[in-house]
Inverse folding.
């Protein structure tokens, strides 16, 4: 969609669930999730349209892809064997690395320097709560991000402030 | 570099706090101001009443994991809904599509929309005018039952038909 004109253009036309798009930093490409293969997987296509190329091929389901600020990686939510993970992979799908594992982790957002990812972690059951967590893309330094009363769906400011 | 990043957060803390305060199973679909309907539910013994629709006809149908297919049990309920709507033309209806908590937010919003649309298509195929049927998806955000087990999940994978009286 063009903000100035408000005009939108449809890029995909499958009957499948296609959602959670994220632009590459240069605006030329879009990464998104689709279940056109029968399960949720990640695809990259030109922002001008055309064919989409699948990049995720591991076990499980992949969703909510987010392009890194430097353009070299994709962060995502992965579900596998009843667990949720936040992970990263290169834009060609190689070097997949899972950074977290819990009952429910989702919705990664990149720090502007591309070294840290923040996400939502929800706990299980009737008393389940959502809180923000951060983790280095090395997978180390997992920690809660304190907020007054829980939180979800973080979005990191491009300025990092 | 600063020791600690300052971040701009979009926090749904209030909404989440509200959700987590609910007692298990206390959520009443369609009661959260989603439709703005103001009718009296009436007596369940009156076949033309919304209470009868909810309790006897059945206001909800259930789905398998990741599916939006209307199965045999759901078809029976929806056929009864269609018959009721045709007999009671003063009502329109909002079909709410829901999902269980397995899956990401965006995916479940899409899945809920798919379920609501599947119900809408079934009802229109049985003679209900599409003008009377609206759909909305709540994804996994409004569970009917709060537990992290299949016993709750199976009740949360649902489409709920909420009546609106067009005369109000």
């Amino acid at each position: 969609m063009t903000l100035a004109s408000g005009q939108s253009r449809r890029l995909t036309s499958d009957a499948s669930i296609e959602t959670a798009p994220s632009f590459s930093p240069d605006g030329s490409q879009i990464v998104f999730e689709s279940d056109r293969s029968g399960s949720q997987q990640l695809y990259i296509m030109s922002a001008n349209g055309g064919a989409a190329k699948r990049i995720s091929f591991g076990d499980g389901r992949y969703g909510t892809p987010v392009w890194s600020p430097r353009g070299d990686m994709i962060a995502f939510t992965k579900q596998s064997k009843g667990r949720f993970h936040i992970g990263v992979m290169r834009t060609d799908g190689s070097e997949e690395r899972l950074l977290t594992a819990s009952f429910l982790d989702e919705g990664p957002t990149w720090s502007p320097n591309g070294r840290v990812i923040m996400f939502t972690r929800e706990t299980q059951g009737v008393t389940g709560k959502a809180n923000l967590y951060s983790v280095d893309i090395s997978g180390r330094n997992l920690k809660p991000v304190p907020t007054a009363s829980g939180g979800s769906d973080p979005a990191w400011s491009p300025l990092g402030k | 570099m600063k020791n600690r990043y300052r971040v701009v957060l979009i926090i749904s803390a209030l909404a989440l706090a509200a959700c987590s305060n609910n007692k298990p199973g206390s959520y009443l679909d369609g009661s959260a101001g989603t439709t703005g309907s103001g009718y009296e539910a009436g007596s369940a013994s009156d076949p033309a009443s919304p209470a009868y629709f909810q309790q006897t006809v059945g206001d909800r149908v259930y789905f398998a994991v990741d599916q939006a297919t209307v199965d045999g049990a759901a078809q029976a309920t929806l056929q009864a809904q269609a018959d009721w709507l045709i007999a009671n033309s003063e009502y329109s209806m909002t079909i709410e599509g829901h999902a269980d908590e397995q899956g990401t937010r965006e995916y479940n919003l899409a899945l809920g929309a798919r379920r609501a649309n599947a119900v809408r298509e079934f009802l229109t195929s049985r003679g209900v005018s599409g003008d009377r049927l609206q759909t909305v998806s709540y994804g996994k955000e409004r569970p009917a039952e709060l537990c992290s087990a299949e016993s709750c999940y199976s009740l949360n994978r649902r489409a709920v038909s909420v009546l609106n009286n067009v005369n109000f």
Observations:
- The interface with chain A takes residues 1, 5-14, 16-17, 20, 24, 101-107, 109-111, 114, 146-148 of chain B (CB under 8 Å).
- Chain B is about 35% helix and 15% strand.
- The mean pLDDT of chain B is 81.
